[in-house]
Design goal:
Elements: H1 2-17, E1 30-32, E2 35-40, E3 46-53, H2 57-62, E4 77-84, H3 87-95, E5 101-103, E6 109-113, H4 114-119, H5 122-126, E7 140-144, H6 148-154, H7 163-172, H8 174-177, H9 185-192, E8 200-206, E9 242-251, E10 254-259, H10 261-271, E11 276-282, E12 290-306, E13 313-324, H11 338-361, H12 370-373, H13 380-386, H14 388-391, E14 396-407, E15 418-419, E16 422-423
Parallel strand pairs: 1-5, 2-6, 6-7, 7-8, 13-14
Antiparallel strand pairs: 2-3, 3-4, 8-9, 9-10, 11-12, 12-13, 15-16
């Protein structure tokens, strides 16, 4: 009897094993959005732009779409733009006009135009996206100069990579340069509602080489601080048109200003995110020359915030070490490196103070000192009554920098250049 029941049960289960997935969807049924742009709309509230790459052997292996009969490069992506009152209504309208369904599981970044960010309506439509199941909280947020639609269209794969890989690696450069911060959808939603910090976002623009001059006035001496530009202003030519450089500064849900790439480095130093980078300082003995210094943090920054006095007082101690990578003047700093150490310490102190004062003028805690100040309070009501986001604008800052030169490169001693006329 038991054997018969077992046989009957097996016969019942066998059809179930061969029934397949009636509700399955093939991967080719989706159009995977890798980049989404949001502008102010013309016919409606918002203008959304979706970029969908062609995941083919040509685009993935060669990094481009090949060439057509006229010898012009084929597009390996497609862009959709639509004016709509909301994201979901825009998605529905696009899905009704293409043979595939838009899918956001591979979305790498959301690009918001600077105009829209400054309008104060950004939180209204961006923060609620955390509810949308297909968009991850780790999706990057970029604030762009000009049109987000044009920014999205300009995104292309670079040297054999695919678009998703290019975008991901480009954004990850903040870890090595400090020229812009990290901001994703989850952080944006949390920081816009926070009582102890404010949102700082990646600032981007298109750089088509207009600032790279072949002719112009002769070099007049001095130097421009590397990275002390906003995105789109760097004098360069070639490479990606998309340029990420600088920080968009928010007060609540409204963009109120921006920091240059160099000022963003000062912020990254205080955060402890800038593990290794290069700074350029004027030569202490020959100001017309420069000294590039590669630095890294020796230990995490130490920050103390005094909230007991009438005005908050902040103490910061930085410990960094580095290498001299070049000495243009030929001065023998290898045996007198304390001069360089003192000059670089003063250089960081002055520029951190300048960036802090700029943040106060914007009424923003750019260095996120509120994350330390909140530890001084036992209860949330006490902290909220203190109103840090207002008090920080009156705060004083003292910065102490301890810099040590570890190496002088592959040269142990500088010697003067000699010519037929003698020592130069």
């Amino acid at each position: 009897m038991r054997k018969k029941m077992t046989a009957v049960l097996i016969l019942i289960l066998i059809p179930l094993l061969f029934s397949g997935c009636y509700d399955s969807v093939e991967i080719n049924d989706y159009a995977y959005v890798t980049l989404m742009g949001i502008d102010k709309g013309v016919s409606d509230k918002l203008r959304l732009t979706f970029q969908v790459p062609q995941f083919t052997e040509v685009s993935g292996g060669a990094g481009g779409g090949g060439f057509d009969a006229k010898g012009e490069e084929k597009e390996d992506k497609e862009n959709f733009s639509i004016d709509t009152p909301s994201l979901l209504s825009g998605i529905a309208a696009v899905n009704a006009n293409i043979p595939k369904l838009l899918n956001f599981l591979h979305l790498k970044a959301i690009v918001v135009s600077e105009e829209l960010a400054q309008s104060g309506y950004m939180a209204e439509f961006l923060v609620p996206l955390t509810r949308y199941r297909q968009i991850r909280r780790s999706t990057n947020i970029i604030i762009c100069k000009g049109s987000a639609q044009e920014f999205v269209k300009a995104a292309k794969p670079y040297l054999g990579a695919i678009v998703t890989e290019t975008l991901e690696e480009l954004i990850e450069r903040y870890k090595y340069t400090g020229f812009y911060p990290e901001l994703n959808l989850g952080l944006l939603a949390d920081q816009m509602k926070s009582s102890y910090t404010q949102a700082l976002g990646i600032y981007g623009a298109l750089n088509t080489g207009e600032n790279f001059k072949d002719e112009g006035p002769e070099y007049g001496g001095g130097y421009k601080i590397p990275g002390d530009y906003f995105a789109g202003d760097t004098p360069r030519n070639g490479g990606q048109e998309i340029e990420l450089l600088g920080t968009a500064v928010f007060d609540g849900g409204k963009m109120v200003g921006k920091l240059t790439g160099f000022e963003s480095q000062m912020v990254s130093l205080i955060w402890g995110h800038l593990k290794r980078t290069v700074f350029t300082i004027p030569d202490p003995k020959s100001p017309e020359h420069i000294i590039p210094i590669e630095i890294k943090e020796f230990e995490s920054p130490k920050v103390k915030v005094d909230t007991k006095s009438e005005k908050p007082h902040i103490e910061v101690k930085l410990s960094v070490e580095g290498d001299m990578t070049a000495i243009q003047s030929g001065e023998n700093y290898e045996h007198d490196d304390d001069i360089i150490e003192e000059a670089f310490e003063q250089y960081l102190k002055e520029n951190i103070q300048k960036t802090f004062i700029k943040g106060q003028a914007l009424k923003v805690d750019t260095f996120r000192f509120g994350e330390r100040a909140v530890r001084n309070f036992l209860t949330i009501p006490e902290w909220e009554e203190y109103n840090w986001l207002e008090k920080v604008n009156e705060a004083t800052l003292n910065v102490e920098v301890d810099f040590t030169i570890r190496r002088t490169g592959r040269q142990h001693e500088s010697r003067p250049i000699r010519s037929s006329e003698g020592v130069e």
